[in-house]
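A favour, since you know our structure tokens better than I do. Would you make up a two-line entry for one protein for me to read? Write everything out right here, beneath this request.
=====
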Amino acid sequence: MERWMGTIHTFHLSFGEMTITPVEFAAIMGLPFGGQSVVFDDWMRTLDHSGL
């Protein structure tokens, strides 16, 4: 029996605990891991509503 423990981010299996890293998750889901970084500019957080 396996069970996901969301509070500690591990699977509890009959033989013990198992933690999945972001790289392992990407491999399981078939997602590309790597490439260029996504940069967040904080100035974009403020919206200009003056034109409404």
